[in-house]
Amino acid sequence: MSSTIKPPATASAATANDELLYALQRSADSDDFNDFLQTLIRESPEVDQEEQRASDSQVLVLPLRKWNNHQAGRSIHQDQRSRMKLSQVLLLRKVTVAYAIGKLLREVSQHQPCSQYSFDEFADKICSFDNFTVRVSKDESLDEGWEIVGMDMISPPISLLMITNAFSCSNFFTENLHDIAGRNVDAIIASSPTSDHTKVNTEGLINDESKLSYLFGALLHLLFSGEERMSTKLCDLPIDDSYPGIREEIVNETSTKKKSSSAFPSLHSVDLLRSIPNPESESNVSSSSVMQRIFPPLIDHGCPPSLSQLVSNLLDCGLGVFAPDDAYPNLEAAIEDLQLLLKDPARFLCEEYNLAAILSIGKDKLYGRSKEEQMLKDVLCRIASTGNTEAIFIGGFSGWVLLYIVRYITVCVSAFVSNSSLRINTSYVVIIRCGKTSLVQSVFEAVHAIGGYLVLTPKFDELQHQSPLSALMTAFNEMCTLVIQTNSPEDLAEISQTLVHTFGASSYLLARIIPDVASLIPSSLLNQPIENQVNFSSLCLIVQRFVRVISSFSRPIVLVVDDLQWADKTTLGILLSLLSDGNGSNLFVIGCYRDNEIEQGNAMIEFFDMMTLFNVSKSDIHLDGIPIDDLNSMLADTLRIFPRLCKTLSSLVYKKTRGNPFFALEFLRSLIDRNLVSYSLRDKRWRWDVDRVSAEDITDNVLFLLTSKITGLSEDVQTALKVAACFGSGVNVAVVEELSATPMYQDLKMTLNDPVTKEFIDFDGACYRFVHSQVREAAYGLISPDDKDRCHFDIGMALQSRIVGQNADNNLVFAAIDNVNHGGPTFISDYSQLISTIELNLQAGEKLMNSHNYTSSHSYLKTAVSLLPNDCWSSQYDLTLACHFQLAKAAYPCGLIDEAKTMLLTIIEHGRCLEDKLDTYSLLVTVYHLAFKDISKAFSTCIEVLKLLGESLPERDIDRLELNTIVSKCKELLQTPAEEDLLHLPFSMCWRSLAVMRFYSELSSVAYFVGPTINLFLVAKWLLYCLEKKVICKYTPGALVTFAAVLCRSDIASEISIGCKVGRIGLKMLHEYDLAIDELPRVHLCYYMFIGIFTEPIQMCADMHLRASELAMNLGNNLMASLNISAMLHRSMYGGRNLETMKMEIASHWILAKQHSLQLLECNLKVYDGVVSSLIGNHTLVTNSVLSDLDVPEYEEISFLYQMFLSLFLGHIERVIFIAKKWESLDIQLKLKCPIRFIYNTFISGLASACWYCKGRQKMQLRDTVKKSLAILKDATELSKWNFQNKFNLLNAMDLANQGKNHKSSKEFDLAILAARSSKFHHEEGLACELAGAHHKKIGNLEEAMRLFHTAQGCYKTWGSQVKVQQIGRQIELVKMASKKEAVALT
Predict the structure, then answer these.
(1) For 398, which DSSP code?
(2) Which sign does the torsion angle of CA 800, 805, 810, 812 carry?
(3) Which helix (H) or strand (E) holds 384?
(4) What backbone phi and psi angles, to 5 degrees, belong to 831?
(5) Residue 190: is it exposed, middle or buried by C-beta count within 10 angstroms (0-12/13-18/19+)?
(6) Residues 290-327 pLDDT 10s
(7) Closest CA to 709 of 465, 930, 455, 408
(8) Coarse DSSP helix, strand, coil percentages of the chain, rounded to the nearest 5 percent
(9) What angle do CA 372, 376, 379 make, to 5 degrees?
(10) DSSP track, 35-63
(11) This model's pTM is above 0.70
(12) Backbone angles phi, psi at 598, to 5 degrees
């Protein structure tokens, strides 16, 4: 017989253990467990040397009695800590054995009904302690060696395989005695008994679950106590006295029968009978006490109360109708509770050892939210696999079940045992989860599993105006820390490189918004000057691009935002920009809010509407009360009892609270306050009287419960809670310390640190925070409505007196001014208070503006302006000037244009000198410029300022002679110094010169839309001032490039050549001198829009416009951003960019334009979208909203261009010619405003005329158009072969074909195709192949035509135009038909 026993597969296999069991019993007196096992192996005749060496990893079988006796003596020689640790391990093993016994008995009752056995037979044969064996396995990973892997029942033979999760083994033995890992045990029946139909005596049969449960309880009592008290006599069972004469029968039978030979010594039956309570004479004796006399509670043997309760409830099943309500209804219920003990030993099995620990019961359990939890995880998986951006918004009432409730329960327990020897520490808490925050936390583990970044924002607060945006920025700072912690050095280097490439010179702007990003970017890029304010648009774009760089498929970002109902518009706008980003941000936003606190006008209403408009992928979850079963589990976890014992209480609580988890625990607390739920020291469990609880009239208003509790506290504690409530959900420790230094609130800090107060307020070392918003609401409600304003004002003024005139911390500034403003100006008693309040509002507004929270900044600054005295411009000039200007700066990015204008015009009216008003004029020009209807006002304002600065300028009418003179003088001055001399002139420091250059720069942008002549004159005046005065500053490159652009808008090649040279000098000066980058978007727009098409590939011009637009958005220059985006799309269209890619870019920029009210960009995008969609063949427009009537500059010229472009490629030649005639009717200066537009329209017009020439209509006029176009294209080709060579070749080929010069035409077509291919103009290569194919088809060269058409089809496919692919397909079919006809004709 082998010493290694595997789980037998059949009953016959199980009987093979008999010899082994005999050997086990012979070795039962062995002192040492391991020696005993080795003896067993050596005495087994069939074991060989190899099996002996492998025995440590194989299964051995032990009798249950031997195994149990050995477990009891394990810890004799251990130290105290080791003994405690070992006792936990052994206890968990015994519970595992108990669970297995229950499963075996359950199996017997199902396959071989208990009714076939008398009670004596069942107790002796089946429920005998010696009828069970334990299978153990050596596991070297375990500190304690042998682990239980199965159990066997000898008669009837049943084998049970125990499968335990791996975590319950090695992780079970922890250094922390209280950190007990649970085990998920599955019991698999390896072999089952077959029913034995032998006829048995039916008298005294065991035929119900109660008796089976009783015997099971007796077995467990022996297992855990070691005392054999189980009776085997039928008369020994407590019998129901309702059966007449049963007592007498039991007594008579007992006196005549012999003593049982059961392995369990029985008690005398008469003693047991005397213990049975008589309903009439012994009503004062509880029925459960009967069993306690026979089976002393296991708690007396040192077992945990939960285990003692379980065994007692099993034993109570033997009392029949006298059984208490807690008795088990069946064996299955007991098995379920045993499984609960195994899964959660920290809660049920360690009470005696764990009272001084911090428990987190339920921390991994979410109550009643399984469906919602799965929804969150599904979205996370979808984002991780697709890289898309999605959001889930969770609404509902407050559901986070508070720490302080169970902390309070623990305090109650301590009070009960304060005079006893039992030691209970009151620091442990229970966390129950089922609300919004808890639901979100359920996905945390999944985020970490996929390697994502989990970022939590601080909660938004109703009373703290400075926190909304700062909360979001704090989250992004945390994201930087996560990036550093979770990435390898190689990955960090790659992220840093990508950030530098993405942000470039504007990296310092990113670091200004997210300071911690400095650890990811070289410090050399962070020391840049900044003058332009970062507005809302730029803020959104910077954050959006940052998230794109940081996130990835392997590391998606999960951004958790709580209490969104208090978020401001700026914060919600940033979230909207992130969610609507179609460029792969890999972002999952989880937003929590209380839907009952969202009223009309709340920013979230518009936020949700905008998400719908921008097709943001989002889901909504609404949380109501949890179901009663989940509430029962929650309360059972809180009270640490079995759920089945808590149902009566849960039912009552559910009726009162409707499943609101927060209210349920508050209600439970009120029951404890009234002693309706109390802790029993004898039973070590919570108990309650259902009838008393039902009869009590307890309010169902949670605020009333909290308020009643607070009003029962001392006056000092109430005052402290009221003061704390005035600051919102929490108050910074610095604020508390400053208030405590004032006479009015000197006891505040001491009171907040009082143990009684800690029941309502938590302190984390930096902040005193209410444990729940409803606690704060209850405390705040104690202040009468008439006193609230005064209370806020007094608190604010007390703080203000401590920080006035100091560079105070932000928390102090905002805490003071928020409370003062809440109180209102009516309480301000003297002039000094008024001025200090204005200064503090101004300080708060500036701080918020520097952190880009313009909405909140505007609120503080508006308050500051409203408090200014009537004579403010005379009595408080500097303060008044600062308040008005800062308010205008805050109103402008918030879209409050009229308010910004009013403030700026007020400054201009009351300002004492021009120098005081220069910044005001500059901002006013920007405001006018953005509103296109006010461009003339922007123009006249610039002229006015320049005149005040000493410049002589005309309003509108320009003298041609003077214009030519100024332009010629500029050219002369540019030719005189060498390029190096110009680059090395000293920088100017004169404020007046800098102001002149600044407003000339503003004027040049405005004048472009006023008229070409006035624009040329003013640009020349600007450059002339710069060259004559030798003013070198950040505006000088703009002067050079703008003048060069004016020259390039000429139709004279020599002028364009000079312009290209001057433009390069200006661009070089901008980059080499590292001048302020806020001028770069303007310079790049001018250079790559007017000059770059003659010096650079057009695709590169598009890329540079894109970079300039991003920088402009970063800088808050919406106008430059709009113009550069339009120019980028314009050049991308000419450069043959893939149409599907362009459509996605248009959609992305459309969202940007709608979010930030960029009307010019909206208008241009609508044109581009129409053209691209028509060429693709998808007529679903992304720009699906209707534009209002706008006076948008150049809209007509842009429309002409793209109508001609689209008509040409769709083959609508006659329409092209019709539109071209309208184009020709425009003034030459208007057409030359944009050289690329002029050249491309010339090309399209000439090509359409050449195509129409063969129709035989107006040939002379069409030929003239072709000749003019060829001449212009030839000059353009001399300047840039990359951009124009293929166009000249194609038009020339068509002209030669029309003249009948087929050989030359074919060669020219080939040159056009090669030139287009070389320049990567896929669309124009396809057009050249298409026209060449038509030419060869016309002259009968069908084979060449077929080849060219196939090439054209491939080019159009690469371009993304399905319409053209289908058109060429039809041409191919026509050629095939012609070829067949030709072949038939030849045959």
Answers:
(1) -
(2) negative
(3) helix 370-386
(4) -65, -40
(5) middle
(6) 667 778 888 888 788 888 889 989 988 888 777 888 88
(7) 408
(8) 65, 5, 30
(9) 135
(10) HHHHHHHHH-TT--HHHHHTGGGSEEEEE
(11) no
(12) -100, 110
